[in-house]
Amino acid sequence: MAKLSGGDPSLLRRLNAIAVLRALYAAEELTLAELVKASEVSRPTVEEIATDLGEQGLVEEVPLSPDAPRPVGRPAKRYRFRAEAGHVAGLEIGPHKALCLVADLRGDVVGRARTDLIPEMAAADRLGIAHRVLGAAVEGRSNLRALGVGTIGVVSGGKVVRGERLPGWTGLDLPAEFGGACPVLAADDTKLATLAEHWRGVAHGVDDVVYVRAGRTVSLGLLLGGKLHAGHHGAAGEIGALREFAASGRFVELVAATVLTVDPQLVVIGGTDAPTAAPLRTELARLCLFPVRVETSTLGDDSVALGAVRLALTRVERELFSVADVA
């Protein structure tokens, strides 16, 4: 941690600005007095910082509503974080669809676009359609701050290192394909669906989770200690590689082996061919040392794209609350 002193005025001001911005980011609106208390920054400094953040378009003073009762004396200043000051996008490129969700800087979805695809489609055609879906979703929305991309296969460092299910997909560099206007981050679809469950789904507030995605293949997402576990090659959870097991009645044994290995608080079932929770819960109770909570995902078709939004939003939050730009 940086040592604060009279010789570090730029760092101190940046830390104060971050404290003010965090307080506003976490609330709908705050009066000046509330903002001073929440940020633990002096009143004059808060006012200066609020002015600076206003010039950057991130914060605005909230005018008194015409219908509000008129206070005695000078009305208290109120401020809010401008979530509409920028946007993030989450793009899923799968065998059967390209789906893009656009969200404001608080993660609230404000736009979407979707197109159906076929598995046999050439990589160039699939990417071209994905670009058009992205363009349609973000059209008319300014300041795209980051893009998250999710797809099938093993994704590591933004590249599809194993992607045999789609023609020409292995070796694809997703940040290179979609970069230019903003930072691009990429991950495989199951890991992003796991992020979405932790953010907005049944795994919210739970830090040790096994996410089971059952469709034409089976894969797992692992959230350990609140962090997504990718593995050395980015292939953690790719149990679909054991095709004879994943496609047979031994699917439950694969899930049970994972539960015994990581001892999660929760197992979430998602995907187009997901079994119902009750039978899996019963079998896991029989096979495992301790009962484990099992829930069915409620995010439906949006799970991967929503996880990609979360990936992009995390990048933006790091930029908003970083001190790295201070010398």
Descriptive report:
- The chain is α/β, with parallel strands linked by helices.
- It contains ten helices and 15 strands.
- It has helices spanning 9-25, 32-39, 43-55, 123-138, 174-178, 189-200, 243-246, 251-262, 277-287, 303-320, and strands at 30-31, 59-61, 78-81, 87-93, 97-104, 109-116, 144-151, 154-156, 159-162, 184-188, 209-214, 218-224, 227-229, 266-270, 293-296.
- The strands form four sheets. Strands 6-5-4-7-10 form a five-stranded mixed β-sheet, with helices on both faces. Strands 13-12-11-14-15 form a five-stranded mixed β-sheet, with helices on both faces. A three-stranded antiparallel β-sheet has the order 1-3-2.
- A hairpin with a 2-residue loop joins strand 8 and strand 9 (159-162).
- The longest helix has 18 residues, at 303-320.
- Mean pLDDT is 90; it is low at 1-6.
Characteristics:
327 residues, alpha/beta, Arc Repressor Mutant, subunit A, Nucleotidyltransferase, domain 5, 3 domains, 5-stranded mixed sheet, 35% helix, WH_DNA-bd_sf
Strand content: 15-25%
CATH topology annotation of the largest domain: Nucleotidyltransferase, domain 5
- List the total number of helices: 10
The residue-averaged pLDDT reads 90
Mind sketching the topology for me?
Elements: H1 9-25, E1 30-31, H2 32-39, H3 43-55, E2 59-61, E3 78-81, E4 87-93, E5 97-104, E6 109-116, H4 123-138, E7 144-151, E8 154-156, E9 159-162, H5 174-178, E10 184-188, H6 189-200, E11 209-214, E12 218-224, E13 227-229, H7 243-246, H8 251-262, E14 266-270, H9 277-287, E15 293-296, H10 303-320
Parallel strand pairs: 4-7, 7-10, 11-14, 14-15
Antiparallel strand pairs: 1-3, 2-3, 4-5, 5-6, 8-9, 11-12, 12-13
Helix pairs in contact: 1-2, 1-3, 6-10, 8-9
GO molecular function, one term: DNA-binding transcription factor activity
Protein name: Transcriptional regulator
Domain HTH marR-type: 17-63
